[in-house]
Amino acid sequence: MSDTNYNDRDPFEGDTPKDENGFQDSTASGEGPYGPNSSANGQQPGWGPGNQQQGSSYQYNPNAGWAGGSSAGREEYKWNFADYESASEPPKARAKRSRGFTVFASILCVVLAIGVLSFAGYGVYSMVGDRDQKNVDSSSSQTQMPGLSIQEKPATSEQAAADGSLTTTQIIKKVKPSVVGIVTYQGNNSFASSGAGSGIIMTSDGYILTNAHVVEKAVGIKVVLDNGEEYSASLIGSDTRTDIAVIKIEAQNLTYADFGNSDQVEEGERVVAIGNPTGMQLAGSTTQGIISALDRAVKSENGYTMRFLQTDAAINPGNSGGPLVNEFGQVIGINSAKYVNEGYEGIGFAIPINDALPIVEQLITNGKVTGRPMLGITGEPIDSVLSRMYSVPTGVHILSVDPNADIASKNVVPGDIITQVNGTAVASADDISQVLDGFKPGDKVKLTIYRRSNSSVGGRTFEVSVTLMSDNGDGTVSPASK
Q1: Structural domains of the chain ordered from first start
Q2: 23 vs 33, 61, 87, 338, CA distance in Å?
Q3: pTM of the model
Q4: Tens digits of per-residue pLDDT, 39-61?
Q5: Which residues are marked as active site?
Q6: Would you call 240 exposed, middle or buried from its count of C-beta atoms within 10 A (0-12, 13-18, 19+)?
Q7: Within a 10 A sphere around the Cβ of 353, how many other Cβ atoms?
Q8: How far apart are CA 270 and CA 268, in angstroms?
């Protein structure tokens, strides 16, 4: 193998004419310097045009180097390094920007701009708002939209009207501190309360007025004042006939109620009821109404007929024992939910205070009502219409007779009709009570009795003399000596 000296011989040297830069023209043969199928008229950077002759191609042999072609017309090859470097370097690609990134950047810029403007606007608004608020507070003449600002309540006079009447608010402030809650317990190995009601403080040392049915059968009584203080109470006395009871707590300097004359009450007067409907959960609730009627006769469960003030102020269970107050802040009645008919609205009853106070005085003094005479019967009225309908005289139809009463020993039985007491005609239990008011237990009275015959036609009349018994106030009687 012969050595080829690449320094003595240009490997790209051939017979093809070269241009002034030393490049051969490849257009004549249709082959470019890189081989066949190169562009016939195209130029590559660094390769000048030449006049390569047909068949004057070069071949490269690894052992012999470049061979072939004619040596005629050979010229010295000159390499243009500047053109070669420019040809060998690939064109710089233009950086492509992501469209999504551009959109995201744009949105981010907008958001930041809005944020900056918002903070700036809020700062300006705050400064202006504070300044305006200070101006509003410092100047009462500042114009404002109606209903958009909180106004102070106008100052009102705390004094009563010229006639002494009070507003509802003034009545509540005056009377409410004297109203208490009453919680009762009946034992039975249970710590739960058995009932609840209301009461009225009568004295500064703790005497409290309430209904008898509120404390009935209680073995323990708790009193809750308007300020939340709690006390254990003792029962002083109870009278079921009038539904009045008195209890006491050991306390001093209590706020007590003022009492008014219930005989002066007129229909249509404004009244306020204060109490604890449903118990202590709604303690101190106030309702308002008018006096709907006077002297309403309502029969109690034990057969007694009681007289009430009727009102449309709401009186619910738990209000029992609380005050019914007139427009002067005076207690004129004791509310009693016991006599409220279920299913009716706007009908409430209160015991007139003039009827209650004599009972209260006796309960405090004696622990019970004494000196109240009683026949020892229960009955129902027979008016003139019933009299004609059943062909019997008007009077009081006897329903029951107390076996401890003197009348039971005089052969008076249920079904008989009392027509007269000491010569005075009677047609109701109230008529009998009015006659007996002039007597005392132990006195004797004469009764006129009508008894129907077994044939249902006609009957007979007879008289008996009976000794009046003492009413115990619980539906029972006892001899006067006791």
Answers
A1: 1-90 (no CATH), 168-366 (2.40.10.120), 373-478 (2.30.42.10)
A2: 10, 22, 15, 132
A3: 0.62
A4: 444 444 444 444 444 444 555 55
A5: 213, 243, 320
A6: buried
A7: 25
A8: 6
